[in-house]
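Marked as duplicate of an earlier ticket. Keeping the data here for the record.
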Amino acid sequence: MQRYECIGKDRALGRHLAAIDGFLNHAANINLLDLSDDQKIWLLYVEAHDEPGAYLIYDRTAARIDPLAAVSNALVGVVFAPTKVVAYKSRDGVDLWGYLTNGVAPGEAIRPLIVLPHGGPEARDSSGFDREVQFLASRGYQVFRPNFRGGSGFGRAFTEAGYRQWGRRMQDDVTDGLKHLVDTGAADRARVCIMGASYGGYAALAGATLTPDLYKCVIAIAGVSDLPEMLESERFDEGRGSMAYAYWVKAIGDPSTDRAALKAASPRRQAAAARAPVLLLHGDDDGIVPVQQARMMKRALTEAGRSVKLVEYKDEGHSPFLWEEENLIAYLREIETFLAQHLPVNAPPAATPPPP
């Protein structure tokens, strides 16, 4: 399991960190939050894919760990779905990997799969606890989170390999991860949906329109649907000469010279190609991806005669898990209902169609 690891430069400190890591079975992300003035008492925060987080006290002199508090008392003792690393190669031969949660054991019936690309895109998925992933797993789904080029945490070259590759190389890396799961018998290609937020929402909509044969349903949360319009919005908000606008031109493309490629990679402009039903979820006060991106996508899909539903959340911003509790619960119920309708867990596996 890929995870974060603290290594002390001081040998004595390193021995204690190694002992703590061993005590936690080499399975947790360990964060040293604070120390007493004499550095003998440590405050630790630990989490893992199946541990929602806890605070511990480490007594350096006694070499003893005592629990202090759990992030959520309601989750203490709950058994969460396991996660494993899945390694695969991109179509151009690059070694990639992602996390598969609630995967099936040998001889077990294959559960439907949700492909969940991360946001950012200069971000990455990790081995820590993910509430949304465990929510989906608790409903019976496998969840696959690929770490695709354009993400962070794997060196500058890996990030820059995704520049100006929205809908192309970055999307191919997501698709190739799904193909690997299908080819190895871990997933049924007739029972797959794609879901994501922010850049992941864009990737979900790109999945719907650029690879429409792959997915039975699509959920886009605060997703970008039109690249030229998004760049124009950023230019208007930040200014043509701003560092923010310069970054997005470098990462996505120049609307002056790359307009044709940007349109081709914009799900809104390719809405007629979509086949799967689409659920759009967006806070109407989103200051990062304007809600207009969702409204434009809904209009385009409706005009193309495709199945689409847009739910807006009043006065909410970009990240659902920072919303008011009432809206967060409504958001999760919307996802649960949509998946139950379009990707039912207990439905018999369909006959697998030939590869596209």
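See parent ticket for discussion. Residues 351-356 have pLDDT under 50 and may be disordered.
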